[in-house]
Amino acid sequence: MVIDGQGGGIGATVIKGLRESMGNDLSILALGTNSIATSRMMKAGANRGATGENAIVRTSQTVDVIIGPLAILMANSMMGEVTPQTASAVSSSDAKKILIPLTQEKVTIVGISEEPLPHLVDRVVKIIVEMKKDV
After folding, report:
1. Range of the domain at 44
2. Per residue in 108-129, pLDDT tens?
3. Alpha-carbon gap, residue 131 to 36, rounded angstroms
4. Triad 105, 120, 80: Cα angle to 5°
5. E strand or H helix that includes residue 37
6. Within a 10 A sphere around the Cβ of 91, how many other Cβ atoms?
7. DSSP 3-state assignment of 58?
8. Has this prediction a pTM greater than 0.90?
9. Rounded to whole angstroms, what are the CA distances from 65 to 27, 70, 76, 90, 94?
10. Would you say 32 and 24 are in contact if contact means Cβ atoms under 8 Å apart?
């Protein structure tokens, strides 16, 4: 499951990277905090998509992996698009979380080097490829 909000650019970039690397061997769910984000992720190659708090809350409890920006764990982030319920559901999910350390919030992550999004997406793809091999 890939979660994104606002314009959906991070999620779309992740999905595109996964598709380029793994083809259709992977079922990708796109969950957007708004319809624009969901639509953009669907166009990038997600198999299915849904929008909004309830979709994210329900689906996050049934998936094996959640990928998204760090902000998906932070209540009221993304200009309020990530609700407290959404952040709680994602953080308490048993799914493995692969978080991209990009945030526009007033948060500084110490020990993380700033890298461009394409480099971070490459790392996400490598993690998923390795996980798929171990299954």
Report:
1. 2-133
2. 888 888 889 999 999 999 999 9
3. 30
4. 25
5. helix 35-43
6. 14
7. helix
8. yes
9. 11, 14, 22, 10, 9
10. no
Amino acid at 40: R
57-82 pLDDT tens trace: 999 999 999 999 999 999 999 999 99
- Both tokens of residue 99? 């978080």
Contact between 18 and 47 under an 8 Å Cβ cutoff? The reply is no
CATH number of the domain within which 40 lies: 3.40.50
**What digits encode the pLDDT tens for the residues 33-56?**
999 999 999 999 999 999 999 999
Q: Is 90 helix (H, G, I), strand (E, B) or coil?
A: helix
Nearest of 53, 48, 79, 117 to residue 39 by alpha carbon: 48
Nearest to 46 by CA among 78, 67, 19, 79: 19
Burial letters for 2-41: b for 16+ Cβ neighbours within 10 Å, e otherwise?
bbbbbebebbbbbbbbbbebeeeebebbbbbbbeebbbbb
The tally of domains found in the chain comes to 1
**CA 65, CA 125: separation in Å to the nearest integer?**
12
